Amino acid sequence: xxxxxxxxxxxxxxxxKDKFIxxxxxxxxxxxxxxxxxxxxxxxxxxxxxxxxxKLLQAYEEDFSKHAPTEIVPRLKMLWNSIPAxxxxxxKKFIYALIKEGAxxxxxELALAxxxxxxxxxxxxxxxxxxxxxxxxxxxxxxxxxxxxVGLLGAMTRIDAKILLEGNDIFTEFKESFTEQFVLTQLKSxxxxxxxxxxxxxxxxxxxxxIQLGTYVVPIEVKSEENLQAKSLKSFVQKYNTxxxxxxxxxxxxxxxxxxxxxxxxxxxxxxxxxxxx
Length: 278
Description:
alpha/beta; eight-stranded mixed β-sheet; 12 helices
């Protein structure tokens, strides 16, 4: 199954679709932290996996006190613990005032830099225009934050294994954010891939991610289920006339006139897929 996934054999991938989705939902809970993965391999017990994840989160907070400058430790903890609530918003731009009423960027700059440098969080900046190179158009004052692992996000929010494995109506609101966290970590597994996001000036539309691949800017819209609508992506393409446009969802691989749907469980292979597209 790994082989056909890595070879982008869409006919066989479609045959095994249900199995791939089952593994994906398992990964949503377990994540990729080695100790959590090993615990699942040894025991097949989700409760024991969650204990490992919670122990990791506790260890990170203890490390804040051991290794970070004393004066920023409380801010580190507050910023770190605010990320799930920030991701749950419809507009996922990070807002300091959600950490603490009246909080300002200047007060949290060192804490933010410390968490980024330690590899515990990813900062994804907004771009004003989808032009090459994307970094020339980044707006560092508008950004989204993600943590390093989807399994740890589930542990931080105490999402039950049954909700992730079977799907659940009460999970609907946070599902898109959770899926976005997964996609971001998959994109990050492609080394040196510049990743940003885009939103309209008045926040009337937002695209989850923009990546730069060779001479192309590639917009990516994330859907948690078999949703074939892509309203934000469509309006973006009409405005900027981008050549390669991606929606990732639970639906099968599909290449239409202006959009390519990549299954969520294949999104980690995006560079291989798009090289063939070019």
